[in-house]
Amino acid sequence: MKRIMKYAGLVLVSLFFVVGGQAHFTATGFFVKIVPPYVPLPVLMVYVTGVLELIGAVAIWVPAWRSWAGIGLVALTVCVTPANIYMWQNPELFPDISPAFLGWRLVAQVVLLALIWWSTRPLLPRQDSVWRAN
């Protein structure tokens, strides 16, 4: 059961980063707008983070890379958190998005970090023994 839950977590993480990663290329203007002003080269940063999201979304499906890909996605998510904080602190710059949703995104980011970490960590042998016995 735990194995199935971990795969479900991988599906959610992968979908999140595939959709988000491709959006960096299809909605580049929006992503550039949410980059805090102190971050240099915002267009380049949007493209680089989009590529890294797509790489991570694929890499978590390669068992030999999964743990490292998870660490990379956690690091990437932490690195882009200032964009979400910037949006939350400056809701007047994003009038089409409710301030409540901007706050919810910060909570969701913590949940995403936990899901990335949990779903990309290997099962311990004793955690998997019930699954193998069936």
Please explain how this structure is put together.
The protein has 134 residues and is mainly α. The chain has one domain (2-121). The protein is 78% helix and 0% strand. The protein is built from six helices and no strands. It has helices at residues 2-26, 28-34, 42-59, 66-89, 99-120, 125-133. Helix 1 crosses helix 5 (99-120) and helix 2 (28-34) crosses helix 3. The relative contact order is 0.15. Mean pLDDT is 93; it is low at 130-134.
Q: What labels describe this entry?
A:
mainly alpha; disordered C terminus
Rg, Å, rounded: 17 Å
Largest sheet: none
Task: Provide the domain count.
Answer: 1
Shape: globular
Q: Quote the beta fraction.
A: under 5%
Distance between the termini: 11 Å
SSE pattern, N- to C-terminal? HHHHHH
* Strands, total number: 0
State the share of residues found in helices, binned by percent: over 70%
Question: Could you say which structural class the secondary elements and strand pairing correspond to?
Answer: mainly alpha
Q: Count of DSSP helices?
A: 6
pLDDT < 50 runs, ≥5 residues: 130-134
Write down the overall mean pLDDT.
93
How is this structure best summarized?
The protein is mainly α and 134 residues long. It contains six helices and no strands. The chain has one domain.
